[in-house]
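Take a careful look at the protein record below. Let me know whether the structure tokens fit the sequence:
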Amino acid sequence: MNYSKSALIALASASTIAMTGCGGGSSDPVDPVDPTEPVNPRADVVECTSYTIPAEKTLSGDITTCTELDSASEWTIDGLVAVKGTTLKIQPGTTIVGLPGTGDATSYMIIDIDAKIMAEGTASAPIIFRGEAGASEGEWGGLTVIGNATNDQVNPYEVNTAYGPTDFVDLADNSGVLSHVQILNSGITMAEDKEINGLSLIAVGTGTQINDITVDYSDDDGVEIWGGTVNLTNVTITNCTDDYFDVDDGFSGTVTNLNITQDTLGNAAMEMSGDTAATFEDFTIVQN
């Protein structure tokens, strides 16, 4: 079957705004700052004006300084690499290889709520994340981006609950840029209910730019989105063993030009759950 449509899909859309207030003149006292008020986790983050290219080409653990990955080197992810409080910049044409591993030794990358990724590839020089062998699904984990465009449906990251949205809400939150990025040979089940997808987006805001994304050979979902308002353009997904495109927990962004080719692998081309209201424009689903 081949479907090509321009459609608006709104499933149990729920949007509630609560406002309270009280009048008062200039003689009213000023309320003190409430120490329990949610704090913007990006407030103290310094914007990067220069970057350092690491001498060590194997990445592991936390990245906490302005770091750039150049296309002259092949980079390796060994275990969890978490970008915190800074920006990771990746040059066009760069290849990042996730080493094989299972359980807590699984190789995957998290861009945390107080960090950004600037992965701006081009059509002729895409940025490639792949497995070491580069031959099949499930060779490494995947890429996860976490933002502040959260709602009361979004929980901590199911794979690693140390990461996830705070109580601070910014629907226009900016986690950086993913452009002309290929995510290959990804997707690993670390444990029960701990499944890493090719690309995972958790409460990512509209300030983030995501376009021209390819996910091929994932041993879980190709793309899964929990909450958030981010818009995605030109997404191509093939050869996944679970769902190809999965939205949950009140995701309300627009997905333009989604292309799914489902062959013998996988469960659903698209899955939706939670009170989600997503807009899909110009999508094509081919099921063989």
Q: What stands out?
A: The mean pLDDT is 88.
